[in-house]
Write a structure and sequence with these properties.
Strand content: under 5%
Low-confidence stretches: none
Number of strands: 0
Structural class: mainly alpha
Shape: flat
Distance between the termini: 17 Å
Order of helices and strands: HH
C-alpha cells in the first residue's frame, strides 16, 4: 500500500495561508494555537483508530 506523504496542492495553499497568519502572533497566541492543533490531531488519530476497528 502506497501511503501519500506529500501534501496536495490545496493543502499546500492552506499551509501557506496559515504560515502568513501565524507570523503576527504573540508567543502566547502561538503556543495556544500549537496546543489546539495538537489536540485536533489527537482527536483525528482517535477517530481513525475507531473507524479502523469498525472496518
Amino acid at each position: 500500500m502506497d501511503l501519500p506523504v506529500e501534501l496536495t496542492l490545496e493543502q499546500q495553499f492552506r499551509l501557506k495561508n496559515l504560515k502568513d497568519q501565524v507570523k503576527n502572533l504573540s508567543q502566547q497566541e502561538a503556543q495556544e494555537f500549537l496546543l489546539e492543533v495538537l489536540r485536533q490531531m489527537m482527536v483525528k488519530d482517535n477517530l481513525v483508530k475507531y473507524l479502523l476497528k469498525q472496518a
